[in-house]
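name: query_chain
kind: protein
chains: 1
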Amino acid sequence: MTQDPTYLLLVAASSIILLLILIMRFKIHAFLALTVVSFLTAVVTGVNADQVVPTMMSGFGGTLASVALLVGLGTMIGRILEVTGGAKVLADTLIGRFGSDKAPFALGVASLLFGFPIFFDAGLIVMMPILFSVAKQFGGSTIKYALPVAGAFAVMHAFLPPHPGPVAASELLGANIGLLTFIGLGVALPTWYLGAYLYGLWAGERTTESLFSDPASD
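structure:
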């Protein structure tokens, strides 16, 4: 059954809005919300009733097949870095190279490098004790250290392979993975520098309280 392109675009936009509402407003688990929205999308776009479930299963199966190995490897690498202390060594080396006044920038660069193979949540778990240690050592607002780190993992996870989102998108659209990597870097690095590093410094200057400040001195 051929549908009008305008109608399909409206359905796609409505599906995204509904998915965000279910997750953010009603706190429904992302996987369950995605399943419900996928089912409703299939119904309103005219997929035959006996083909709704097979279509959903083939879609989920194809996506998982392309990203499952990457998810497993990313989790393993994150655990290896946590156990061996590799992240701390790199962070300390970069801080020594850039200087203590550039500690937020050094932490951000370290997070960008680790953000290639490590997923957002695993990366934050690895880097969080390090950034707290650096913030306690050099002082100032914790925000100016935390935002460059979190922003680095966020942009790498959103824009660059081998993270699941970009890989799944390249599979669905038939995009060249190498070209996607270069374009992703071109978008991710300026986004991090402006939206995470510079904004983190700006926000840190206006939020002088540190997590490690002494309450007795207030």
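note: The chain has nine helices and no strands.
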